[in-house]
Amino acid sequence: MKRVINKMTTVALALMALMASCTDKEGPEPTLSVTPQVTDIEFAADGVTLTTGGSTTFTVVTNQSSWKVFPDKTWVKISKSDNQFTVSADPVTGFVGPEAAEITVIAGKGMATSIRIGVQQRGEIQSLQVTPSNIRAIEFSGDGATATSGGTTVQPVFTVSTNVGSWKAESDQAWLTVIEQDNTFTLTAAYNYSLEPPATATVTVSAGDAVPVVITVTQAGGALPSLEVEPSDIRAIEFSGDGETATSDGNIVQPVFTVTTNWSTWEAVSDQMWLTVIKQENTFTLTAAYNSSLEPPATATVTVSAGDATPVVITVTQAGGEPLDIERELWTIVDFSSQWNDNVYGAKNILDDDLGTQWHTDPFDAAVNGMPQWVIVDMYKEQKISGFIFANRNEELSRSPKRIKFEVSSDGETWSEALVVNDIPQIMSEIMEFPCTPVTARYLKVNVEDVWEPDGAWTYISIISIF
């Protein structure tokens, strides 16, 4: 019995010694540290530059024989060397960064201890550039024609560069307009009628979430529109009956006037058909038609205007004239496009001064009908023409002329346009007069280019003459 107990004691002591030996071999607790000590880092879109965190290279200190580091997202890249590791990221090509990731560092058998570092990455930064970049303040002149910046004349045209899909440039004042075209915009200023500057305008250029670009625009006080018409002492003119001579206060004058204005455009308009205004660059000339009546025509008023400037008014009269001897009885028809029955509707009928007769073009022959229709008249001698006389036939007018072109010639071969009349009234039994710029010619060609009936197959005229 004593021997059994001794054996048991020996076994127990051996076990205790073995356990003590195993405990001595396990060693101290595992330790792990990573420097710099950060909990989170954030990359820019390029995957290299840090926006927060301070460093992409970390040093690992541990009392274990081995350690590991790994990310939980594939966009995070780890490069390990000795006791260090470096973190980088795939580049981002959009404006939104990837899902947040986490890096885990572990050390020891069974991975006894670990450290975690959060990783984030931003998307691309939305960018906006407006060039010239040194122009952020502009002043327009009062008339809006000139722009300056820093005392130097500039063109108010800007170019926009951005990685955002769209951009816009907006003005906060009605007097300043922004005109966008492709990747540029232009600033235009309205005419400032006030002597005071308008409210300062702000042009804001924006693109997505990029930092906006602001351009400040001012305008100088303007000047009221001005208008001068020279000679300034001629505001009343009288033409002779034949329209050849103009006088003012009993003195012969040239009816030519020069216009000076600070407005962009001007007009000179006569309210009577016998008086024509011929405008050319900064001048205008008055011409009077031949007055074939013994009585003076209605007084004409020529109004010269430019924007809101005070208009200039010239009053024009004409003396009674003498009947124009055109020897119409000697006129003949030279040629025509078509006619229907020479005895009844021949082209010669336009010369008989009878509203009961007519020239009727051929309505049936498809080879000659349709527009235009024309007739050529030999007026016997060179005639001074101030306008044309026309009359519709004295019956149904569905296909009466709507547009006529009057051409003249000295030899019957070379033609020049004297007048085009549109929307001729559909009126029966009435002589119509259409003034033109005075011209001298022997031959007259009357071209009917359009009629009121849509099919336009034929037309008719009762009387053609001149005055």
Task: Explain what this protein looks like in three dimensions.
With 467 residues, the protein is mostly beta strands. It folds into four domains: 32-121, Immunoglobulins (Immunoglobulin-like, Sandwich), CATH 2.60.40; 128-219, Sandwich (Immunoglobulin-like), CATH 2.60.40; 227-318, Immunoglobulins (Immunoglobulin-like); 328-466, Galactose-binding domain-like (Jelly Rolls, Sandwich), CATH 2.60.120.260. It is 6% helix and 46% strand. The chain contains two helices and 37 strands. It has helices at residues 2-26, 342-345, and strands at 32-35, 40-43, 50-52, 57-62, 67-71, 76-81, 84-89, 101-107, 113-121, 128-131, 137-140, 147-149, 152-154, 157-162, 168-171, 176-181, 184-189, 201-206, 213-219, 227-230, 236-239, 246-248, 251-253, 256-261, 267-270, 275-280, 283-288, 300-305, 312-318, 332-336, 359-360, 373-391, 401-409, 416-421, 432-451, 460-461, 463-466.
